[in-house]
Amino acid sequence: AALAKEAIKVTLKGGQEATVVDLGGKGPTRILGAIVPDGDKSWFFKLTGPDALVAKERENFVGWLKSMQL
Known about the structure:
The protein has 70 residues and is of the alpha+beta class.
């Protein structure tokens, strides 16, 4: 339930909607993950690394997702 509160929705260039979650701030490693349903399959994307670096690149990750067309 807490994870769902933290999730954001992002619309891709192709019109699909991604759910993005930020699993960070609780240790040295942070993970940004995105799930994109696409018909009968789903695409999964993640950015993993040191907490501060991934936090700094969060907007770039979201921008990259927005530019995608599946």
